[in-house]
Amino acid sequence: MSAQTEAPLFTGVERAVINRLQLGLPLTPRPYADVAEELGISEEALLDTLTRLLDNGTLTRFGPMFHAGEMGGGLTLAAMRIPDHAFAAVTEQVNHFDEVAHNYRREHDLNMWFVLATETREDIDRVIADIEAATGYPVYNMPKEEEFHVNLHFPV
Amino acid sequence: MTPRLHTDVCSVLRNSPPASPWGLLRLRKLLEKGVPLTPRPFQTLAEQAGLSEAQVMDAVDCWQNDGLIKRMGLVVQHRTLGYRANAMVVWDIPDEQVSRLGRQFADIPFVTLCYQRPRRLPDWPYNLFCMIHGVSRDRVEGQIEELIRTHQLQQCPHAVLFSSKAYRQRGGCYVGSD
Prior knowledge:
heterodimer; A: alpha+beta; Alpha-Beta Plaits; 2 domains; 4-stranded antiparallel sheet; 6 strands; B: 178 residues; alpha+beta; Arc Repressor Mutant, subunit A; 36% helix; HTH-Siroheme_Decarb (chain B); AsnC_trans_reg2 (chain B); lyase (chain B)
């Protein structure tokens, strides 16, 4: 994305750290020192900045994203059509399932969208059946057929 | 039960002595919490997992190559970074064109995820899904118009599903919807 965000305001160092570390951490014995050198700051300044951004909640975590689909488990995107009057109750029922990883309300006839991540591929069908039984509404199962790889980056 | 960790693939590629599956399992659990903010984070992880620093670095390298680790870096809450609008844009693309168009979409800087998924007729005719995160709804709408113009998709049925609320997000595991 080329767009600069309007808010919140970051210092120059914070900006540099956030943008650089989204690209990854080098696999070297002193990776923070190497990144700091690249950015022209000290290792201590980099670690302090990172600690502060994590502590104040700007950043969620620093570490690898595991690709659930590569770990042998099941993974799918699912959608439901839930009437307004039932939406809150069904949301609660759906989120009660540990396998539900993200749940978004979206503006469409199919208005509830969530990801299911299960221990094994076979579990997907079972969890979908359980969700349908618990809520009384059908679940549309939309597993990926092909992934087109993007370089995810949110510049600030 | 032996943990499923792709260790077979890794051991033949690396120089460090093979790590025990249990050590690797401990390492994975530790990594799910994050990389330590210490000057030698891989050494710190090694001490906690009962491995050597070299084994930790080899394992991470291997998991990255395998695709088990999708990305080794900051996990950002795009909302707190100022990206407040998130739209899932879905398209009904003829099957023989979907791969080509999917690859083109994935190269567009503002497209943050792109997948081919099955249609669910008659309710759901769309087979190509892309996610756009932007600073505002107006901006995202403009980006969608730009995408339609650039790729000449004026005739192509599509729908834009802005999210109005996130009810659950979970860190640590990339699961591909957001």
